[in-house]
Amino acid sequence: PPSAGGEPLRRRDRRPMTIAVEVASDVGRLPVSMRAAEALAAGVLRAEGVAHAMLSVAFVSRATIASLNRRHLKRRGATDVIAFGFAPAGTRGPVVGDVYIAPEVARAQAVRFGVPLREELLRLVVHGTLHVLGHDHPHGAERSASPMWRRQESLLARLGRRLA
Which residues pair with 18 in a beta bridge? Predict the structure, then answer.
């Protein structure tokens, strides 16, 4: 199967990698192209040593993410990103997952953190992909000091530069 870019991916040992990332949006125009989000998510999967994956990334409305949050996580209100991993963690099987990102929530965060919306959306692509892979972080002030957050920022700095 083709990679996000259409060509089969190969590891150094020449075994084929099958990483497929599909990106969709129901929120209109974004400062991040579907192709950039796709390439970033695939890059995170490769950087984390994933050989086989099927991942979807959807940019959704505030109402849609609030509904997902309530239905699946039993939490009230909209959040920035929700991720679901469907392959058991720690197995050698393929990674399968969905990432939902709310650009409207991301916009408010970008203003609060003083970063461009594009950067915040790319951060959430990395964040959601890491959650699908089983990474987690504490809530509250400790969140940005967690190993997951440090990994996220490292991947964003390294892989996000290529998308500029």
Answer: 52
